[in-house]
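Figure 3 (text version): structure tokens given as input.
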């Protein structure tokens, strides 16, 4: 049974069966594959990145988790899977998909599998166009620190879980509480029937807000228990009966007495003083969402504060990789205008100058956000800051390549900001290392491409410790 406070005391259901994950290196797919195995099932997976010899650390982590990795050639691991799991990014031309259809093996979207996990547990589903991974991680860490032993399925790797030898985006606890990141970008959000829903924001990202709003309507309708909502005016249509958080006077969980610093922030909620080891007003908002959700699970505010004070963070969410020669390098997932603005503003608190590297992902998303990206960089970059743009990241598949990062560079330059474009990403990294001087912050931003972290570390290693100025690719 589960108490009214949401604290589960029954064990979660076990799963079984052999599932094959095509594109298993993706963050959402790898999380589901691991969780399926952690819940008692068997799994195999393939990815064209693995076939090219890329992402060895992810491959090794999945194999340690018990997932059989095979070539993406339609052969599977020698055991006929009960189903092949795909994401929206996996096209019908992928050999595994063709082979499955020819053999009569069901092909299921990853959201169907996640929906099953959501329905079988007391699930807290976090959605919105920005901040999902961070809030999901905060809720998980709060519940874990409070002894609730939750599970998690998310798109960002928790540094806490990485420190335990896991990949970081999935973990199975002993209670029936499950925290998931519920993605709206591909429409799969409508499949989920969570116990608690958390809605953070509604901004222009993959689609226009008007297109996303009906998905949030369904999300609200299908939530069976508490619904946690930002007090942002853009979300008012879902406010009836919701538990609100934010900065307005009517919010149920409102931050007051706010202090910010380059490395963290502090604020008060209902006479309890909270301290957060990550910077930025956006992270105060993220923390308020997590506070409201955890409180709805029956966790006292003082215990929530204890969990947040020890928050470890999420990989590539404003993750500092270290400093060399007086220059700090930060790795960040920022890819839409609001995330980019928040990351730039947080970096500007840390450095006299910000040297910002941004790799757009996908020709369609870049085309859709082109003007917004130009405007965001033009408004947020200071006169002393620099922007470095490589070519658009192409993950494969069919795409109309009628836009380039050069188009964004030209637009930002027309607004009077210092911007550099180079299709040779290594050369661009060399230029950043050469341009950097003590007191600067190098901010590497972009989504979907795991090699960005490798690039960021190479830039860090190449910064001159004693003025040698050498790039070491």
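Below: residues designed for each position.
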């Amino acid at each position: 049974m589960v108490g009214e406070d949401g604290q589960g005391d029954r064990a979660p259901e076990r799963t079984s069966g052999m599932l094959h994950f095509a594109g298993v290196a993706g963050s959402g797919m790898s999380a589901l594959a691991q969780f399926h195995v952690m819940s008692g099932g068997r799994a195999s997976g393939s990815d064209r990145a693995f076939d090219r010899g890329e992402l060895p650390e992810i491959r090794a982590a999945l194999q340690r988790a018990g997932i059989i990795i095979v070539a993406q050639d339609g052969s599977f691991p020698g055991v006929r899977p009960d189903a092949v799991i795909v994401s929206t990014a996996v096209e019908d031309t992928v050999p595994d998909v063709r082979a499955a259809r020819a053999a009569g093996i069901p092909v299921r979207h990853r959201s169907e599998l996640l929906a099953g996990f959501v329905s079988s547990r007391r699930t807290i589903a976090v959605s919105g166009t920005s901040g999902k991974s961070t809030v999901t991680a905060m809720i998980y860490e709060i519940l874990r620190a409070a002894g609730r032993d939750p599970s998690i399925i998310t798109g960002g790797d928790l540094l806490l879980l990485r420190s335990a030898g896991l990949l970081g985006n999935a973990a199975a606890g002993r209670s029936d509480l499950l925290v998931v990141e519920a993605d709206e970008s591909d429409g799969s959000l409508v499949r989920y029937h969570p116990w608690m829903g958390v809605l953070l924001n509604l901004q222009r990202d993959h689609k226009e807000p008007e297109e996303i709003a009906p998905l949030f309507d369904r999300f609200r309708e299908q939530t069976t228990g508490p619904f946690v909502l930002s007090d942002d005016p853009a979300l008012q249509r879902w406010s009836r009966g919701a538990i609100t958080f934010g900065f307005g006077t009517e919010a149920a969980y409102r931050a007051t007495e706010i202090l910010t610093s380059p490395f963290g922030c502090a604020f008060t909620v209902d006479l309890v003083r909270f301290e957060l080891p990550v910077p930025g007003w956006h992270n105060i908002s993220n923390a308020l969402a997590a506070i409201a959700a955890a409180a709805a699970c029956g966790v006292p505010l003082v215990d929530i504060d204890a969990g947040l004070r020890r928050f470890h963070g999420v990989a590539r969410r404003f993750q500092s990789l270290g400093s060399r020669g007086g220059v700090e390098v930060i790795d960040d997932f920022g890819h839409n205008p609001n995330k980019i603005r928040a990351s730039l503003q947080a970096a500007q608190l840390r450095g006299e100058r910000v040297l910002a590297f941004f790799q757009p992902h996908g020709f369609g998303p870049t085309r859709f956000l082109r003007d917004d990206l130009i405007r965001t960089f033009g408004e947020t970059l200071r006169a002393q800051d620099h922007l470095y743009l490589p070519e658009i990241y192409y993950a494969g598949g069919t795409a109309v390549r009628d836009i380039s990062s050069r188009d964004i560079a030209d637009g930002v330059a027309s607004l009077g900001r210092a911007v550099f474009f180079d299709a040779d990403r290594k050369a661009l990294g060399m230029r950043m290392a050469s341009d950097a001087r003590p007191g600067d912050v190098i901010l590497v931003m972009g989504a979907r491409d795991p090699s960005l972290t490798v690039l960021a570390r190479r830039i860090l290693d190449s910064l001159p410790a004693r003025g040698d100025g050498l790039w070491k690719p």
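The chain is about 35% helix and 20% strand.
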